[in-house]
Design brief:
Length: about 190
């Protein structure tokens, strides 16, 4: 099990700016890949501002629970699972793991969570000195959108660097755009 404190700055892009950033950073892209996220819903997930998903990247599956931090960012619990556990979760069959134990603390029985929607992201990662810059093309509910995300460990230096990055594209940042899952749930009429 992996526990992380995630600090990121996120901004929605139009298609033209997305392509311009990809072009400008082409030589610095360290990795491009597609990830498929299956999100789950339960009344207490939204009530407690949680996010629960299975992410498939290549032939691996990661089960993630994000818990909103009171100050900045979120706490993320990740565990690698195999295809048999994915199948059980999708069919609301009982499983036991660290995330299921945490969910019980929120009065969420794992067998009551329901698959809500699927979101596919084509991502390009660009390692920078202060963090990872990711450029995303997201597809969900017959919608395509584009996003720039900068994940950092130092919120102040990271924000300063994010301002420098987006200034070149005449973009402004005041607060993070809604998360991919929130946008997808709204589009799917689930929020």
């Amino acid at each position: 099990m992996e526990k992380l404190h995630e600090i990121e700055f996120k901004l929605l892009l139009n298609k033209e700016t997305y392509h311009q950033i990809i072009q400008d950073y082409q030589k610095q892209i360290s990795k491009s890949y597609t990830q498929i996220n299956q999100y789950f819903t339960h009344p207490n997930i939204s009530k407690n501002k949680l996010m629960l998903r299975i992410r498939q990247k290549e032939n691996t599956y990661e089960f993630t629970l994000k818990e909103k931090d009171k100050i900045i960012g979120s706490h993320e619990t990740n565990i690698m699972i195999d295809a048999s556990i994915v199948k059980k979760l999708m069919h609301q069959e009982k499983v036991e793991n660290e995330i299921v134990t945490i969910l019980k603390g929120y009065n969420i029985e794992q067998t009551d969570i329901k698959p809500a929607l699927c979101l596919s992201t084509y991502r390009c990662d660009i390692p920078l000195p202060l963090g990872m810059l990711s450029i995303d093309k997201n597809e969900y509910c017959q919608t395509t959108d584009f996003e720039l995300e900068f994940e950092v460990t130092d919120p102040e230096l990271g924000l300063e660097e994010f301002y420098k990055i987006i200034k070149k594209y005449d973009l402004t940042y005041t607060t993070n755009c809604p998360s991919k899952v929130v946008r997808a749930l709204k589009k799917g009429g689930l929020l």
